[in-house]
Design goal:
Shape: rod-shaped
Strand content: under 5%
Radius of gyration: 29 Å
Number of strands: 0
Mean pLDDT: 78
Helix content: over 70%
Distance between the termini: 31 Å
Length: about 300
């Protein structure tokens, strides 16, 4: 188990751990720049196509032989309405996943912070045990910091070689090397750290460092683990692939059909280009924002 922790004031340690949360996707701003750039890369070429189609329609087919195409606009309007409904549904679903993930991260942080605060409060006040209490506080707060770090690693989009050191945490340089090596090479860091913390709490209670009511903190730790498991499902269960493929196909059809429809219905090439660009920009931007939101980690 960890031993020989570097010492500084335990209150400053607890404050540092609680006031510096790790930043994940759900704690960062939405990357609107790439979203708008990708949407514009689709809408701008389509607007050029609409202007060209308008010129061709009004100069090549002057006799109006294909004017009957304009009758299909009502059908295209129904198609647009269905596409908008499907797009709004996916965006709402992605938005709910985003806030669910953010809520899980903050909730588990609060659970484990309360556990650390309770353990500090239940520590013995006996002057003869001051050094044992001091070592216990420094040890348990670092274990909890590593636990939160490992939990964030587990729910984030990370590769298999990522370690706890990929996120900021309290200093663990004094941790036993065998324990550190075992932890870093394990695929179940959260479960291992929870077990170590539970054993440390039980040992502290048996030795008199902690008051007997401190064992109630074990329930709080377990609640945090359950929350982490709920957060993992967001990362491990993506949006249904079939729905995504269908929506992509409809967006492509819409991107091809809208320039032709605007070229036939509108009276000028610049109005056809403008309506096409704005409409497609909004549709594709909402679709790309939904993709960003549905994976908050």
């Amino acid at each position: 188990m960890p031993k020989g922790w570097q010492s500084w004031h335990v209150v400053s340690i607890l404050s540092k751990w609680s006031c510096n949360p790790v930043k994940l996707g759900c704690g960062q701003r939405l990357r609107l720049g790439p979203v708008f750039a990708r949407a514009l890369s689709v809408s701008f070429p389509a607007s050029v196509l609409a202007s060209i189609a308008h010129v061709v329609y009004n100069h090549v087919f002057k006799d109006g032989t294909i004017y009957t195409i304009s009758n299909a606009t009502s059908v295209f309007s129904v198609f647009t309405m269905v596409l908008g409904f499907l797009l709004v549904f996916r965006t709402n679903y992605a938005y709910s996943r985003y806030w669910e993930g953010a809520g899980h991260v903050m909730q588990v942080r609060g659970e484990w912070f309360n556990a650390a605060r309770s353990l500090f409060a239940f520590c013995s006040k006996d002057p003869d045990r001051s050094q044992e209490v001091y070592d216990f506080k420094h040890g348990i707060i670092r274990l909890l910091s590593m636990l939160y770090c490992a939990a964030l690693e587990q729910i984030s989009e990370s590769d298999t070689e990522r370690s706890c050191h990929s996120f900021s945490m309290l200093d663990d340089s004094k941790m036993d090397e065998d324990c550190r090596s075992y932890l870093l090479n394990s695929d179940h860091k959260v479960e291992i750290l929870v077990h170590w913390i539970q054993v440390t709490i039980v040992q502290g209670t048996n030795s008199g460092v902690l008051a007997p009511p401190a064992v109630q903190v074990l329930t709080t730790l377990s609640s945090g683990v359950v929350i982490i498991m709920n957060a993992r499902k967001i990362n491990e269960l993506p949006f249904p692939h079939g729905y995504s493929q269908m929506l992509l196909a409809l967006l492509i059809i819409y991107s091809i059909g809208l320039p032709v429809t605007c070229a036939v219905v509108l009276s000028s090439w610049y109005s056809a280009a403008g309506v096409t660009c704005c409409s497609l920009f909004v549709m594709w931007a909402v679709a790309f924002i939904a993709i960003e939101l549905e994976m908050p980690f």
